């Protein structure tokens, strides 16, 4: 029986290629498999492998994975609802397990491709370091970056295909497979619990933290120690481990201030600038899918726009010529004048500030929480208006304010649905929504995507999701 999960190296260098005639899109033709050890036999091969891993990571971030949590959330409106249009099934909560070329199949497959690339780098890096001691520092840095990417793959796939960590008291519900190595042709892997998936994520981040040294990202296009700490804070936030979420948010922030008003807008409009990016994927020489999606189809819902004060600078990214439009992926200055390029954020400083504020509320450190949320508000509406908002907010209402600011700040950056479900909130959409799903009460089986049918058919150990897998 052929491998169901994916044995694929980055196709750009021709080590493996996807078979055009495969009946199961998760099966791949294992061309050149014996050349992989030779390819990874020196630091240059290891470095090239990391490049392939980043390309695979970009491929799933700049597509349905980033669209899904906003389209399936409650702050977006799709305009094109014709059958077969991108993300319509996810918008209406009618995802089809047989969809191999839509979100259900693409997200599953693309994440595994990135994960397989990362596993190759992780597997061969120690031996390359041993064989080339003069390049030990380089090898360790590459290994650290690959571990961060593998952590992202497990975490992201679990968020899409499994209920949130706090769905059960001990996180014992079904997650996704934990893959530390690429399965062989006859391996039928099953799903680990969500707790086990998160533990693997934490283990990879812990090891990466011993290998990466840049506490403030020296190059935001690559995973850094700052990115590790930012991810720790996000993961612990989902786990409701508030003390650790706050601890790692502080480590990620360090002494770094938020981008000022000009730099904030500019980081979306000029892809040559860092702004407050901690980890941002490069779309150089790529055709950006997010830009196309938000240009033509997905608009901010009226309920989202209504959350902002009239003078909020964030509206500049959500309104164009008086009409609703997300322009977070519509840069006007692009290196090389690549007009189809977009560069999605993985982590940026504002999210970490909001992680810190939310965690501080839960541990009762309200003054600290106010400091973090004030920084977000002051940049958006000015110091005086921000202080007025905070003065009018009692401590018992502060968490709700932080959650509201998170919705406003991180909209269309891949967070909305995941925040709704981890907060155990009902999904309530604008009254005039054109979706067939107007409201969805928490908990619900519909808050996750079905496991792809092709995977279930080929792998007898792969368990389906209730209700959504028919």
How is this structure best described in words?
With 470 residues, the protein is mainly alpha-helical. Helices cover 47% and strands 5% of the residues. It has helices at residues 36-39, 43-61, 64-71, 88-92, 103-131, 136-161, 194-209, 225-239, 242-253, 261-269, 289-296, 302-305, 349-362, 366-381, 383-391, 398-410, 416-422, 453-458, and strands at 76-78, 277-280, 298-300, 319-320, 323-324, 345-348, 427-428, 439-440. A two-stranded antiparallel sheet has the order 1-3. A two-stranded antiparallel ribbon has the order 2-6. Helix 6 runs antiparallel to helix 7 and helix 8 (225-239) runs antiparallel to helix 9. Residues 1-34 have low confidence and may be disordered.
What keywords describe this structure?
mainly alpha; two-stranded antiparallel ribbon; 18 helices; 5% strand
Topology:
Elements: H1 36-39, H2 43-61, H3 64-71, E1 76-78, H4 88-92, H5 103-131, H6 136-161, H7 194-209, H8 225-239, H9 242-253, H10 261-269, E2 277-280, H11 289-296, E3 298-300, H12 302-305, E4 319-320, E5 323-324, E6 345-348, H13 349-362, H14 366-381, H15 383-391, H16 398-410, H17 416-422, E7 427-428, E8 439-440, H18 453-458
Antiparallel strand pairs: 1-3, 2-6, 4-5, 7-8
What can be said about this structure in brief?
By secondary structure, the chain is mainly alpha-helical.
* Total DSSP helices: 18
**What order do the helices and strands follow?**
HHHEHHHHHHHEHEHEEEHHHHHEEH
Q: Structural class of the helices, strands and pairings?
A: mainly alpha
Count of extended strands: 8
**Major pleated sheet:** 2 strands, antiparallel
What share of the residues does DSSP label as strand, in percent? Answer: under 5%
- Order of strands, main sheet, comes to 1-3
Low-confidence stretches: 1-34
Distance between the termini: 25 Å
- Rounded to the nearest angstrom, the radius of gyration is 22 Å
- Tell me the overall shape: globular
Mean pLDDT: 92
What is the helix content? 40-55%
């Amino acid at each position: 029986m052929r491998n169901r999960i994916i044995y694929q190296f980055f196709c750009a260098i021709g080590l493996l290629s996807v078979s055009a005639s495969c009946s199961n899109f998760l099966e791949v033709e294992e061309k050149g498999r014996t050349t992989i050890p030779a390819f990874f036999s020196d630091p240059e091969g290891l470095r090239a492998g990391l490049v392939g891993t980043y390309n695979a990571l970009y491929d799933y971030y700049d597509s349905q994975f980033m669209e899904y949590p906003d389209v399936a959330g409650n702050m977006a409106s799709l305009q094109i609802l014709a059958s077969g249009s991108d993300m319509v099934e996810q918008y209406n909560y009618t995802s089809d397990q047989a969809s191999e070329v839509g979100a259900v199949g693409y997200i599953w497959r693309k994440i595994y491709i990135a994960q397989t690339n990362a596993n190759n780098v992780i597997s061969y890096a120690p031996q390359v370091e041993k064989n080339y001691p003069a390049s030990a520092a380089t090898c360790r840095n590459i290994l650290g970056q690959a571990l961060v990417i593998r952590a992202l793959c497990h975490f992201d796939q679990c968020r899409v295909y499994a209920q949130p960590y706090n769905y059960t008291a001990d996180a014992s519900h079904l997650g996704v497979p934990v893959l530390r190595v690429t399965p062989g042709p006859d391996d039928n892997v099953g799903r680990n619990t969500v707790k086990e998936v998160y533990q693997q994520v934490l283990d990879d981040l812990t090891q990466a933290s011993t290998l990466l040294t840049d506490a403030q990202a020296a190059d935001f296009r690559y995973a850094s120690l700052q990115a590790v700490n930012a991810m720790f804070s996000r993961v612990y936030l989902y786990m409701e481990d508030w003390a650790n979420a706050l601890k790692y948010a502080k480590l990620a922030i360090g002494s770094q201030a938020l981008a000022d008003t000009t730099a904030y807008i500019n980081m979306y409009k000029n892809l040559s600038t860092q702004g407050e990016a901690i980890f941002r994927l490069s779309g150089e020489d790529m055709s950006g899918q997010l830009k196309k999606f938000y240009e033509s189809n997905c608009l901010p819902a009226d309920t989202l726009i209504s959350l902002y004060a009239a003078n909020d600078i964030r509206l500049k990214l959500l309104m164009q010529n008086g009409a609703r439009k997300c322009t977070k992926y519509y840069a006007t200055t692009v290196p090389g004048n690549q007009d189809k390029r977009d560069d999605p954020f993985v982590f940026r400083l504002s999210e970490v500030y909001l992680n810190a504020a939310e965690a501080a509320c839960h541990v009762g450190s309200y003054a600290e929480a106010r400091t973090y949320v004030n920084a977000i508000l002051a940049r958006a509406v000015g110091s005086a208006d921000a202080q007025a908002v905070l003065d009018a907010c009692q401590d018992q209402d502060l968490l709700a304010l932080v959650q509201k600011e998170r919705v406003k700040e991180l909209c269309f950056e891949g967070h909305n649905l995941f925040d709704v479900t981890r907060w155990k909130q009902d999904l309530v959409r604008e009254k005039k929504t054109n979706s067939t799903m107007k409201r969805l009460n928490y908990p619900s089986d519909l808050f996750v995507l079905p496991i792809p049918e092709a995977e279930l058919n080929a792998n007898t150990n792969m368990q389906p999701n209730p209700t959504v897998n028919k």
